[in-house]
Design goal:
Layout lengths: L6 E3 L10 H6 L2 H19 L6 H26 L7 H17 L4 H24 L5 H20 L9 H8 L11 H16 L2 H11 L1 H6 L4 H27 L10 H11 L11 H20 L4 H32 L3 E3 L6
Antiparallel strand pairs: 1-2
């Protein structure tokens, strides 16, 4: 006769070992949203002029290019790649729009040409990364310099300012009866498209799978190269659209337009909860992070804080968010190593 002692082990799935409300509310994205609300409340009560409607208008106009480009950038970074050329593409599309308009082409034709340049630039990045197999960091550093060099080479140190008045007025116009600029409408349309694409389609699930493991995603039937190529093209065309808006908003096309914009976009995406290693990210966190940086910068400027100090505070916030995420991951690994609690069956005495 053989006596068998049974051991009951509680198996816990990491993603579902907490109640639903904790999984929904105790996240990095919700923390960024809560911090955004807190900063808005504090700035509204302590910074003179912050709560005025005109401040909201200028705030949205300032962050609009970052909001637009952050959408495709978030998807690219979820796959574990990066695109550092987006700021230079804004500048190049601005110059293309200005040069063609100055040459007598209708503005609509010039804008369409700029969008085409964005598609071509994104395709170049995607080809070098997915077909040639080069690292996206190295590729986009190179195209950052290439696109900026083309922009400066086309215009030199001059600027084009003769744009149709109806278009420049539209770029700064407000939706009737509100202080919200019209650029918010195309952003919201793009936001819905990218949210559906990332979170509610097989293509989006493939993006997360690529970020978690490129080889596993490929064995699962996901076309890794095609997915990345599409994302780089999307980044190029959205950056070109942002460049057209940038040009009309300021009424000027210059080769140095949007210099350094790519760093602001990447900072916002990382602050919004997208992992720098890929495989994780939510677009509502990214949008909240862009608005948080914009609100913080606007409030500090109104408080007469210099741009250097603003950069230091923004950089410190970004570093703190990355450190906090790493610390949380380290604690989760320690918890996983400790293992789930074990219950031992007590033999009954008969």
């Amino acid at each position: 006769m053989t006596t068998t002692s049974t051991t009951s082990t509680l198996r816990v799935i990491q993603d579902h070992d907490r109640s639903l409300w904790r999984r929904l509310l105790l996240t990095r994205e919700v923390a960024i949203i809560a911090l955004l609300v807190l900063v808005v409340l504090v700035a509204s009560t302590t910074v003179k002029g912050f709560a005025q409607p005109i401040t909201v208008n200028y705030l949205l106009l300032d962050v609009a290019p970052i909001l637009l480009i952050a959408l495709p950038m978030a998807l690219i970074m979820v796959t574990g790649e990066i695109d550092l050329s987006v700021g230079s593409m804004v500048g190049l599309s601005s110059v293309v729009t200005g040069v063609l308009t100055h040459a007598g082409a209708p503005f609509e034709v010039a804008a369409l040409a700029a969008l085409t340049v964005g598609v071509i630039g994104g395709a170049v990045n995607g080809f070098l990364v997915t077909v040639v197999g080069l690292p996206s960091l190295a590729v986009t550093i190179g195209t950052l310099a290439l696109f900026r060099g083309l922009a400066v080479g086309l215009l030199g140190t001059t600027a084009v300012t003769d744009f149709p008045e109806q278009w420049t007025a539209l770029a700064k116009a407000k939706i009737a009866g509100t202080t919200i600029p019209y650029i918010t409408i195309p952003f919201l349309i793009l936001l819905v498209i990218f949210v559906v694409l990332l979170h509610f389609t097989p293509f989006g699930r493939g993006i997360f799978a690529i970020g978690l493991s490129k080889d596993a995603a490929r064995f699962s039937g996901i076309n890794v190269e095609r997915t990345k190529f599409i994302l780089f093209v999307l980044a190029g065309i959205v950056s070109a659209f942002a460049g057209i808006f940038f040009t009309l908003r300021f009424g000027s096309a210059r080769g140095d337009n949007a210099t350094g914009l790519e760093l602001q976009v990447i900072a916002a995406v990382v602050l919004g909860g997208v992992s720098v290693f890929g495989g994780r990210g939510q677009l509502h966190g990214v949008v909240a992070a862009v608005l948080l940086i914009g609100v913080l910068s606007s409030a500090l400027r109104l408080a007469n804080v210099t741009s250097d100090v603003i950069n230091i505070i923004t950089g410190g916030l970004l570093v703190a968010s990355v450190v906090a995420a790493s610390l949380l991951s380290w604690m989760q690994r320690l918890r996983a190593k400790a293992g789930p609690p074990t219950r031992f069956a007590v033999p009954s005495i008969s």
